[in-house]
C-alpha cells in the first residue's frame, strides 16, 4: 500500500461537481463539490474533501463526523442548541445523529471523515 499525497488540499481545484445541497434553505441553493479519498484496506471508511458555496441547508448526514476546515467560514446550529461559528483552521467533531442547519458565510472547504455509530 502506498501513501496518498494530495498537495495543497486547501487550494486544489480537483473536485467533482455534485450540484445543489439536498435540503436547501436559501435561494439560490448552496452547491457542492467533493473528492472522495479511498484508503485501501479501509474502504468502509468515508473520507474526502468537501466544498460548499454560501447559503443555508439542513445537515442530512447520520454518521458521526470529524472535519477540519481548510477554507471559508460559517455557522452550524445544532437542533435545540446554540449556534457554533467556525472558520478556516478549526476542527469540529459531530456525534452520530447530529442534525441542524449549516449557514455558509464564505465558501467552505473541509477535510472530513465519517464514522458510523457503534452498536452497544
UniProtKB/TrEMBL annotation:
Transmembrane segments: none annotated. It holds the Pfam family Cupin_3. It comes from the Bacteria. It comes from Achromobacter aegrifaciens. This is Cupin domain-containing protein. Residues 43-112 form the (S)-ureidoglycine aminohydrolase cupin domain. CDD domains: cupin_TM1112-like.
Amino acid at each position: 500500500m502506498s501513501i496518498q499525497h494530495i498537495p495543497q488540499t486547501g487550494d486544489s481545484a480537483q473536485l467533482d461537481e455534485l450540484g445543489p445541497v439536498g435540503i436547501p434553505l436559501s435561494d439560490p441553493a448552496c452547491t457542492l463539490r467533493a473528492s472522495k479519498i479511498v484508503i485501501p484496506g479501509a474502504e468502509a471508511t468515508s473520507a474526502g474533501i468537501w466544498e460548499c458555496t454560501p447559503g443555508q441547508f439542513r445537515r442530512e448526514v447520520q454518521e458521526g463526523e470529524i472535519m477540519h476546515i481548510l477554507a471559508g467560514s460559517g455557522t452550524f446550529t445544532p437542533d435545540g442548541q446554540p449556534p457554533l461559528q467556525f472558520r478556516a483552521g478549526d476542527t469540529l467533531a459531530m456525534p452520530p445523529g447530529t442534525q441542524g442547519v449549516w449557514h455558509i458565510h464564505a465558501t467552505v472547504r473541509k477535510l472530513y471523515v465519517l464514522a458510523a455509530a457503534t452498536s452497544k
